[in-house]
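Q: I'm writing up a methods section and want to include an example of the input and output format. Could you take the sequence below and give the corresponding predicted structure tokens, formatted cleanly so I can copy it straight into the document?
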Amino acid sequence: MQKLLVHPNARRHGLARALMVELENEAAAAGRRLLTLDTRAGDAAEQLYRSMGYQAAGRIPRFALNADGTATIYSGKVDLGTGLRAAFPQIAAEELGLPINKIKLIEGDTLLTPDRGPTSGSNGIPKGGMQLRQAAATARQALIKLASEKLGKPTSELDAIDGEVRPKAGGAGVSFASLIADKGFELKLDSKAPVRDPKTHKYVGK
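A: Here is the clean output for your methods example:
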């Protein structure tokens, strides 16, 4: 795995393209037939790769809600004693309304997780944790909206609890698994999705 970077002051002089050509030549000389690249969506590097004939093969998720109602966190950061391995599942479970034993964490797998740079100091939770919280809140709002259509109740009267969306006043709910079924569940992060009031937390800070 190679990491290619061009200093901001040296950009727009063709260096990135030259580095890519050199990388392709080295890969070919080593008998490599497949070259995969990882970049953030909308990044300038994406435009370069497309201009050189590369095509998008897919997106690496940071957080996924699975068809069986479980959730998977894909973290480019790893736990070096900072508590990330405990904190990330707690954050996701809290915001999503899912039992913590239904959360799986995959960390530091360069094939499956997004490149979030090096793990250093203690910035994994303050930075990655806040993004995860917002992603889980986004998913919760989407699930509540789906359940609103099924249950015939306004979203304001529903909440996500223990893997189901239920009426706040009580009554039958609908499971996450049945809401997403085989439809797929791909969402863009909603930076304005409301997060839970800390006073209602079951895991974080307990």
